[in-house]
Amino acid sequence: MGRSQGSSQEGDMRNKVLFTLAIIGLIAGMISAYIYGMQKKPQPPVFSPASNPYAKGVYASCITESYQNNGANINIYPEVTGTIVKIAVAEAEAVSRGTPLLIMDDSVQRATAEQQKSQAEASWALLEELKAQPRKENLEIAKAQVESANAILRTAQDQLDKQRKSYELNPKSVSKDALDNAENAVRVAKANLEVLRKQYELTKAGAWIYDIRNQEKQHDALSKAYLASNSLLAKYTIKAPVDGVVLSINVAVGSYVSPQGAYDTYTQGFSPVMVMGSSQTYLGVRCYVDEILIHKMPQVSHMDAQMFIRGTDIHVPLEYVRIQPYVSPKIELSNQRTERVDVRVLPVIFRFERPKDMNIYPGQLVDVYIGEK
Fold first, then answer.
1. For residue 229, which of 41, 113, 114, 267 is within the disulfide window of CB 3.0 to 4.6 Å?
2. Domain coordinates of the chain in residue numbers?
3. CB burial of residue 105 (10 Å; 0-12, 13-18, 19+)
């Protein structure tokens, strides 16, 4: 009987504990639901988002660039391959046309150019030698040889005449063999004199015109080879193509570059070794208008635009410059879910005067609304 009452009391206590825990859990769940259901007060925006200042304005994502009459920023690529040994300018430095920007190792090409220069000079010296013929000393030697052959002929002729007279007076005084030898000696002397006379005339005439022409052609070919080699040597020094400002330098001393540009470690692609912009007081704004909004753009004569600097409440009026009349794929996608992957855009270029109290640089992304005046 006592054992039964004790078990009943323990069961009642256990039920009370479970009931209490259930009540606590219910209260905790209600409190949690209330806390999570409370709406937090939103943080105020860092800056007011750009609003359309026009009744029928067209929005475009844009990028600032150095202002050019045509094209965009000036991307500089080398025309030869090599290693950078010197960087002669600094970023943001204003340079004039022809100023050396980058210098590449040109030791091999310089040696090649010097070798071809020496070959061209040697061919010129040989050409001058041909044109200067006959040489006075050679002509005097040839003339002396003719005179010597003439003297030998006279001597041989005198010997023959004496032997003939002796033979006519007394046939037994001179043998037939001796007379024949004397006649042969005269014939040999005459032939030798004739050869030396022709040699003298050849020496006196100077170089053959065909030899001179051939040497002229060789000199011309070697000279042009040297000029081509020297022109290639000059390309190892990259110079400023126009007056402007150095916007960025994408190489360091020791970098290997090619006509493809410089390899970028971070993007793992090739980029121009240097980017230049104009040093004018204007900056350009390149706007990409979505193809579905092109028909909403106003006529060029009534076009007006406002540029909004991201992160600020600043807006700048823009001046229309030109439209590139070719719809092309968009360069950069925003990765938004609502953006089409086959976006095509129309480039519209504006410009504005660089503000003195504001830092704006080429390559900066801005928002632009295009409307009607």
1. 113
2. 1-42, 58-67+280-372, 74-105+236-277, 110-129+212-233, 134-206
3. middle
Work out the burial of residue 178: count CB atoms within 10 Å of its CB; fewer than 13 is exposed, 13-18 middle, 19 or more buried.
Answer: middle
Interatomic CA distance for residues 83 and 253, integer angstroms: 8
Q: E-assigned strands of the chain? A: 58-66, 74-76, 82-87, 94-95, 100-104, 237-239, 244-249, 256-258, 261-264, 269-271, 274-277, 282-290, 303-309, 315-323, 328-329, 344-353, 365-372
Structure tokens at 261: 């540009």
* Tokens read off for 126: 């040989």
Q: Quote the pTM value.
A: 0.64
Q: Which residue has the tokens 């950078």?
A: 84
Question: CA angle 322-301-284, nearest 5°?
Answer: 30
Numbers of helices and strands, H then E, in the chain: 5, 17
DSSP tag of 363: T
Distance of CA 41 to the CA centre of its chain: 57
Q: Which two structure tokens, joined as six digits, stand for 303?
A: 């076009």
Q: Which CATH class is domain 58-67+280-372?
A: mainly beta
Mean pLDDT by 10 residues, the chain (373 residues): 59 74 78 71 63 88 85 89 95 93 96 96 94 88 92 91 86 83 91 92 88 95 96 96 91 94 86 87 90 91 91 87 88 53 87 85 90 88
- Are 229 and 179 in contact by the 8 Å Cβ rule? The answer is no
134-206: CATH number: 1.20.58
Peptide bond connecting 171 to the previous residue in cis, omega within 30 degrees of 0:
no
